[in-house]
Amino acid sequence: MSSIPIDLIVEIFLRLPSKSVARFRCVSKQWGSILYRPDFTELFLTRSSALPRLLFVVKFDRGDFHLFSSLQPQNPYGKQSSLLVTADFRMKFNRYLFLSLCQYASGLIYFLHERTKIRDKWRSHEERDVLHAICNPSTGQYAVLPELKRDRCTDFFLGFDPIDKQFKVLSIVAYRFSDNRILTLGPEELRWRKIHSPLTHRPLSQGICIDGVLYYLSRRTDDDTSYAVVCFDVRSENFKFLDEEVFPSSCPILINYKGKLGLFFRKYDVADAIKLCLWVLDDVEKHEWSKYAFYISGDDDNKIDDCQNVNVVGVAATTGEIVLAEKPSCISKPFYVFYFNPEKNTLQRVEIQGLGFGLGKFCYEDRYFVEVFVDYAEDLNVNDAKIFKPSQGLDIIWKRPIPQHPEEVRDQRDMS
Where is each F-box domain found (predicted)? Predict the structure, then answer.
């Protein structure tokens, strides 16, 4: 090592995946001093952000679920009619951990699994098992959060403070002041603490964190027919409510549009195309929005076969393209992601291969569900040593697996 210039060593490390860098930090004090330096971690994030990836959470009807990622095409528009991309396998989770909530923020995934136990046959009383976990897809490590009593109308959100480099999980109980909680991930003992919201409300959408502010859509207590955008500052833990005029539709999709909050509203009045209305929050204090409308159809080679069967999943930061993905798909059919360029009014279809990896004997049906996250970048600033326990695999979290298929019930009876 002494004969190799330090600049060349850094350049070599920058070309490695984050999982390898995490291992090499433990090789020696010299390597650790290089790989923990703030200038190295920031440069690694800059390079990773310049080549962003799509992150796929694939859930099979009656099987395990997996995490994959693939590079986002930086210039997908060419002479070819369609692009083909193979997704890289990241990690696999136990089949009993079906997700009821999945959120992404700054390199980490927060997921919640909920099971309802019926204590008597008349369903007069129910209990709910809830698992909260944070996972780093780059390293495969995770943290299981402390239990928290879950009301039927409780929503959870993951936020990231880019100044203090802290992740926080926010719990909001609909229309209550006193039951809201927040948890900070870190080396100290994880615990939920109370947090006060200045106005009771009911969250209606999944949250999105942009530059340290967590946004989600809600209804207000005083007027259940109107909507408000909730802005929660992750660092100061203060709430702000943006009361808006009547939205074009009741459930917009929240996205990061070039560093600003964007709301996508979909119109279904066009038979062979998709009409999208986009609102971009230009000024939080003045409540000023810019509004746009797009018609997405595509040509014969890049058309969307079923316009009702795709959702907007985000906007690519490096290119400004609107990214759409298919809804639940059949294993025997290709899975497509679509890139729409608003300026050129062009649509490019990209086939994603490899998502059917590792179905195993427990896949009794041939359909799967995919959640797609845009602009996934490997971030070494996420300090796994301070946030995560040593990874043992999420397949051991649940001690009381519930059979999901008659054949499994019969197998367990035979074993007993």
Answer: 1-47
